[in-house]
Amino acid sequence: MKKIFITLTVAFSVYIANAQKIGTGTGASKNNNNNNPTSSILGNITNDDAGAAIKEVLIKGVSSGVDIVSLKDGYFKNNLIKIPFPQEVQIVESTLRKMGAGKMADKVIESLNRAAEDAAQAAKPIFVNSIKQLTVTDAMNIVTGGQQDAATQFLRRTTSEQIIAAFKPSIKKSLDKTHATKYWKEATSRYNKVPMARKVNTDLTDYTTRKALEGLFVMVAKEEGKIRQNPKAFGSGVIDKVFGGLLGK
To answer: Residue 27: its pLDDT value, please?
Structure first.
């Protein structure tokens, strides 16, 4: 990716220098050229070409990330994002296991992760819409800014609250569908009967929603890393045109 950044930087330098020369000869400013969607960045590559290519690879990347986590075991068998017992009540899990009720604890954990997998697809249209709203400048900054997870961080800033709002109804429905609510009630009821135990009452929907969101961004960041390693692997005509031109391939 360092090569991409270097080449892009050189390309922008050439573009700005050319714009300044044009401005000197015609009275136009470099800003006017920079805002022109058909102005050339490198050869026959326009601002529109570059913006469209970047948006396309980002959409493919985030869609791939969502698709991965929405498969069966997308959360449950991925140790990077597997949703555990809520941290504040992990004593419930340890107590259940000591009582010989480990299978009950396992059912709770599995059902939480199944609910996250079931709800994950709700994030895709929100991500796609946010990426489509990117300006050409924003898209370029994401590629050339030096942050390896710049796109993921952009999506985290611009979509988290929307996704939480979209996830919650889906998660609640999925928690019931996967029997998580039932298993949770059984587990906490059994725990609450332990002498001297502090009663627990965790908002399971909110907890699972936020953990599902965290895991989703982890996987989106991984997919972004793949894009930065080899953007042309996500290719189409416009991507080949932009990245092939910028990389001299």
So the answer is: 35
Given a cut of 50, is residue 50 above it in pLDDT?
Answer: yes
Are 47 and 136 a contacting pair, CB within 8 Å? Answer: yes
To the nearest whole number, what is the mean pLDDT of the chain? 76
| Entry pTM | 0.71
Q: Please determine, for residue 235, whether its predicted confidence score (pLDDT) is greater than 50.
A: yes
- Where exactly are the structural domains of the chain? 55-231
Which tops the pLDDT comparison, 143 or 219?
219
